[in-house]
Amino acid sequence: MPHSRREFLALAGKASALALVGAHLVDSPLAGTLVDGLRPLAALAAVPASLPASAPLPLPGAEGLYGLLRPEAELTLAARSVPGLLPATGAAMLAYEARQGGRLWRNPILVLQKGQEFRARLVNNLAEPTIIHWHGVDADWRQAGHPSYAVEPGGRYDYAFPITNRAGTYWYHPHPHGLTARQSYLGLASFFLVRDAEEEALSRELDLTLGATDIPIVLQDKRFDAHGGLVYAPSADDLLMGYMGTEVLANGARRPTLRASTRLYRLRLLNGCTARIFNLAFVSTQGGKRPFLLIGNDGGLLETPQRLEQLFLAPGERVELLLDLRGLRPGEELALANAPFDPMHNEGAGHGAHGAAPASAPVSATATTGGGHSGHAPQSASPQSAAPALDEGAAYSILRILVDRQERYDRTVPARLSTLPAASAPVTPGAPRRFELALDRHANRWTIAGLVFDMDAAPVVVERRAPEAWEFIGATDGMPHPMHLHGYFFRVAARRGSPRQVLQRAVDAAGRLATDLGLKDTVLVWPGETVEVVPDFGTPNYPGEQTFLLHCHNLEHEDQGMMLNVRVR
Ligand code: C2O
Ligand code: CU
Ligand code: CU
Q: How far is the CA of 521 from the centre of ligand 2 (A)?
């Protein structure tokens, strides 16, 4: 077993990274270690019959967990703990519960039409404050889940706003200050899909059906206690680096199987982890990466499809992919996998021990419910840290895609998907606004421009109507930070000083990656890198003064204060 990133990288360099991933298809439930991964791939090809049966990928149905819900009138979303809900272990998880027309959803995938009015009521059935944030969705700051609007247990919050976004894969999750990571981790998160005429035409052209061949998949890593219960117990080191699970779940299931036919699939992937970054690839059991098309990201469709073999996906980011399974034969399979990369934890020595002594009492999904009792044994009785965290940069498989039937499919992907409004030139007078992302080594927390969150302060004041030039500057002796802005999308204009594993993927002279094209609300900033972005504070034109947030979407970082108010006036 590798004991350090360096050792891991040395090993990964020798063995074929792809073989490592493929071999994980045959190993046991616990997320693979490098030792398991080194099993020769040939063994796999010889014994396909011995592949373990894995649970089916939970597909969004007409109700239930992650079911599709088209809100008709005002929708009530009750945040609560639901026993037995987590597909992976049958443990309790937190979920938004909704009812409509006699049906019941948990964490519904909300499906909205551009132009419609959205009305929802949050009911807080947790034992602590909460508020919903609609990530990527255009909404006035009072509707967007600013933490100052968090409601107490038993409280409610009413939302009403028109859907003005273009079609895209947005999402929703809690945003109470200091509690965002834990509540999201314990289950509160789902998709918010917007559809419009352009997107529907593409779906018709490619014969894609939401829930069957157009599949939203939320990826989240978890830690479990001995009984399969979710445990959120970050140590001081975890708060600094991010809380890493021992396994990655897809729609709540452990390395599940998607049974597929020989056609095109659209996958909408959301990184819903608190801290884990993925380097996603589709790996065949023959040991090759199967290319795919990136067609959309945070803010909807790209102008043209981008052919890729792998992509980084950081917490908060979404991608829409087209995966072509024509040419595979029934019985053949692929894995959606994490391919090896350098997680770049350059913040210095002495922070090696993930999963060390918890900084605070562990909290489980049952312990945050209302109703007066936790019903959960003390964590000390079932140590959750027995298993080491799954190495962020290791090769491991997440989802098995098994072709089990043939289909005639002759659609072709259009060369042009959409036309984005011309990127506006920043009108910032003088130099760009600089946001340095660095560790305050005395306070042991991450800062933005030397600051940490103060609910009442507005350290960034911008004029409405104006696109600005911003620079996120990753400290060389830091770690990657996915930077997220509420309320507005931005264009990524350039990356400078990128580490080699990023620079290698640049698609233009500005150093941008394919995943930087289009409209972004979250962008990953690597150590030593400067990422230049252009948020447009003219679109949307919200009425009156606004107070949005700029924060790191590593949710441990965010909760520790790596967040600033941005006043728009
Ligand atoms: Cu998805 Cu302020 O976050
Ligand atoms: Cu957001
Ligand atoms: Cu961060």
A: 7
